[in-house]
Amino acid sequence: MISLKKVIAIARKWKKMAGIGRRTISLPIISHRLADRGHFVVYSADKKRFVVPLAYLSNKIFKELFRMSEEEFGIPSDGPLTLPCDAAFMEYVVSVVQRSNSIELEKALLASCHLATASVSEGFNCHHLIMEST
After folding, report:
1. Mean pLDDT of residues grouped by 10 in the chain (134 residues)?
2. Long-range contacts from 105-112, C-beta under 8 angstroms, 24+ separation
3. How far apart (Å, rounded) are the C-alpha atoms in residues 82 and 80?
4. Closest listed residue to residue 113, CA positions, set 95, 130, 99, 98
5. For the chain, does the N or the C end have fewer beta carbons within 10 angstroms?
6. Residue 110, CA atoms < 13 Å, CB-side half-sphere
7. Left if phi > 0, otherwise alpha if psi is -120 to 50, otherwise beta: which for 32?
8. Sign of the C-alpha dihedral, residues 98, 110, 101, 124?
9. How crowded is the C-beta side of 124, counted as CA atoms within 13 Å?
10. Strand, helix or coil for residue 134
């Protein structure tokens, strides 16, 4: 028969082991909060996170998206910067800016930005706009 002291010691050890497992599982992952050096973070209207190079700040498309974001959401004082387009449209914008396509494509994308904002605010996706602007 096991003594009471041994049973208490084993119970404490099990409790400690169980607590360690719970703590590691329940810890939040904070590594995604900060952007790498030379990048900034924006969110799409459907809450998808994008890490974008600082060089894109001077791009006309991003400037227009920021202006539209300020009109729709205001300037955030302590929260994330949210752009007024869905994730699919934002991925397309990033790919266009990355490839440095023609000025005509940028103009078409800027025009569709206004339509994309209207459709996002109404709850629709912008996939049709992406296909039309290419």
Report:
1. 77 71 45 77 91 91 89 82 88 86 76 60 44 45
2. 105/133, 105/134, 106/60, 106/61, 108/133, 109/61, 109/133, 110/60, 110/61, 110/64
3. 6
4. 130
5. N
6. 14
7. alpha
8. positive
9. 10
10. coil
